[in-house]
Amino acid sequence: MAIHPSAQIDASAELAADVVIGPWCIVGPGVQLGAGVHLVSHVVVQQDTSVGAATVVHPFAVIGGDPQHNGYKGEPVRLEIGSSNVIREHATFNRGTPQGSGVTRVGSNNLFMTGAHIGHDAVVGDHVVMANNATLGGHARIGDRVFLGGLCAVHQNGRVGQGAIVGGLAAVTRDVIPYGSAWGNHARLHGLNLVGLKRKGYDKDAIRRLLAAFRDLFEGDGIFADRIDRTAGTYGDLPEIGEIIAFIREDSRRPLCLPGE
C-alpha cells in the first residue's frame, strides 16, 4: 500500500493492500477501495462508496458526494462503482437518495472524461464512455456500451439503451432506443449506431436487416403501436430488435426519442 503522507484516510475506510493514494486525497468514512485502485492526487471519495479493482481516479474528481436533492437530510445512501474504470479530472458521482433506490450504481470498464457527472440513483452499465462534461440527471439509466458525447445531458429518469450513441451538446429529454443514434438539441433519433455495430463485428447482412427493421418500426405505415407489433413479428429472430421492442414496451408512458421530432 502506497499512501502519500498528505492524504487523509478515515479510520473506517477499508483499503486493499495494494491501493495507491496520491498527494492531498481524502478518503472518507464507509469507503471501500478494491485491489489496485489508484487515486492520483487531490481526489475526494466523500463517504459510503465502494470502488472496484483497478479503477483509476484522476485529480479533483469528487465521488460519493451527497445527492443534489433538496429532500436529502443526511440519511445513509451509497455509491457503488465497478472495476477497471477510468475517472478523469473534475468528474462528480453522487450517492443515491432515500426517495430513490438509495444507491447510485456504476458498472465496469468505463471511461468518464473530464467533468462527467452522474446524478443520484443513476444506473450506468459496462463499457460506457461519457465524454467531457456529459451529464446524467437523477435516476437516469444508461445501458452497456453507450457513448455519450461531450456536453450532452440526459434528463432525470431518462433511459439510453445498450449500444446507443448520443451526440455532443444533445439535450436528451426522451428515451433513446438500444443501438440508436441520437443528436441535436433537443435530441432526435437519426438512425442506428452503425459505427458501434460495425465495431462489435456485425456484418453487412446483419446491419441491412437491422436497418430494415428500424425503417419498418419508425417509418412504416400505420400507427406506432401497430408497427411495434408488426416489427416484433417480422424480425423476432433478431435479438437486437427484440431488445428495442422490450425497451419501448417497458414503460409505454415514457416519451421516446423519435425521428423527425
Describe the protein.
The chain has 261 residues and is an alpha/beta fold. Helices cover 17% and strands 26% of the residues. It has four helices and 28 strands. It has helices at 194-199, 204-219, 224-234, 239-250; strands at residues 2-3, 8-9, 14-15, 20-21, 26-27, 32-33, 38-39, 44-45, 49-51, 56-57, 62-65, 78-81, 86-87, 92-94, 103-106, 111-112, 117-118, 123-124, 129-130, 135-136, 141-142, 147-148, 153-154, 159-160, 165-166, 171-172, 180-183, 188-192. The chain has an eleven-stranded mixed β-sheet. A hairpin with a 4-residue loop joins strand 27 (180-183) and strand 28 (188-192). The chain is elongated, with a radius of gyration of 20 Å. It starts with a strand and ends in an 11-residue tail after the last helix.
Could you give the count of β-strands? 28
Give the overall pLDDT as a whole number.
Answer: 97
Structural classification: alpha/beta
Q: List low-confidence stretches.
A: none
Strand proportion, as a percent range, falls in 25-35%
Number of helices: 4
Distance between the first and last residues' Cα: 54 Å
Strand arrangement within the widest β-sheet reads 1-4-7-10-13-16-19-22-25-27-28
Outline, from the CA principal axes?
elongated
Biggest sheet record: 11 strands, mixed
Radius of gyration: 20 Å
Helix content: 10-25%
